[in-house]
Amino acid sequence: MDATTLISRSDYRLFKGPRLAVIDTQNGNRITFDGLIADHPTYQHIPAEFKQGIDATTWFGPSDYRLFKGPRLVVIDTTNGNRLAFDGKIADHDTYKNIPEDFKQGIDATTLIGRSDYRLFKGPRLVVIDTQNGNRITFDGLIADHPTYQHIPAEFKQGIDATTWFGPSDYRLFKGPRLVVIDTTNGNRLAFDGPIADHPTYQNLPPFWTN
Length: 211
Prior knowledge:
Number of strands: 16
Radius of gyration: 16 Å
Strand order of the largest sheet: 1-2-3-4
Largest sheet: 4 strands, antiparallel
Order of helices and strands: EEEEHEEEEHEEEEHEEEEH
Structural class: mainly beta
Number of helices: 4
Strand content: over 45%
Shape: globular
């Protein structure tokens, strides 16, 4: 898995290479789209290189849907014909003005837990941005040193591929074919640790997505 984002319970998107899958988690985890990013209407205006794959993605809302690839960021306004509200360097977007320079060159994964808790991952490092208070950095250090991740496997502390915040008892991290789910309401214990294919959300996906 390269990237994931939860737009709504009926619109959960997964990216891998040039492909996109959309799962309706409210209706039996039905697959509502499985094809090329380029063939989904949301992405009609994104640059060609983004249609070949993305590194990370964040859903801030319908007018602020972010896709990352290397040092570049595009923001899609889905309320306005999926036009691009921003297309440029991560470093030139106000949200990321305070992040470390190496994060401005590219990130591995992102998740928005709350407006004051927006997390970016790169290798074994994590930065947390408080977007409600001047985009202040509230954490910059090793994944392993953040209390949320105390129980995740050692290999996940070295870096993750993608992440999705479903809610406090269902916070998902992906690495290769493996998935862990953190229950932050219960001492950050793991609610799931195993192959992606064994988690019910992904039961209807072709093997391409879960291998």
